[in-house]
């Protein structure tokens, strides 16, 4: 299986898309609720922890794309120790 990752800025948001040839995402609702110790969905868990939105859709050319959108946040100054 070939996976095609893409990252871009769109309307000041970071958009990450990962596409593959499998035209389904069984158990998406379950995987999206994964925790940090789960084997599947850890990356989706991190996106959601940072306030991101995760969706998926079927591509016209076949397969699916999982899309994560992260809003910008105000940077906090780093305190030197």
Automatic annotation (TrEMBL):
The keyword Nucleotide-binding applies. It comes from the Bacteria. Gene3D superfamilies: Histidine kinase-like ATPase, C-terminal domain. One of its GO terms (molecular function) is ATP binding. Keywords: ATP-binding, Nucleotide-binding. This is ATP-binding protein. It comes from Streptomyces himalayensis subsp. himalayensis.
């Amino acid at each position: 299986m070939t996976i095609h990752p893409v990252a871009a800025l769109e309307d000041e948001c970071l958009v990450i898309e990962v596409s593959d040839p499998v035209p389904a995402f069984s158990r998406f609702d379950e995987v999206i609720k994964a925790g940090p110790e789960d084997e599947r969905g850890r990356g989706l868990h991190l996106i959601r922890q940072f306030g991101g939105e995760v969706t998926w859709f079927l591509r016209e050319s076949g397969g699916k794309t999982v899309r994560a959108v992260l809003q910008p946040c105000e940077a906090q100054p780093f305190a030197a120790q």
